[in-house]
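I am still getting used to backbone structure tokens and would like to learn alongside you. Please make up or recall a protein chain and show it to me in full. Would you write everything just below, so we can both look at the same thing?
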Amino acid sequence: MEKLLEILRDLHPDVDFENETGLIDNMILDSFDIVTLISEISENYDVTISAEHIVPENFNSVQALYELIKKLEDED
């Protein structure tokens, strides 16, 4: 999860990603951030995030993102 936190902090160093649970709902992450995140996650975790997974529930918190990554890794 540390690598994921590092990716998120590179996008928004001022956000407390460990405690924030409304990254999408509170408009902390925008569409450009999501595209960057998907690319960085794909590169760093060797998973593909398909369109069906690009929903607010999967991007609202670092925990939700990490669970998505683990799920995708298990599917491979």
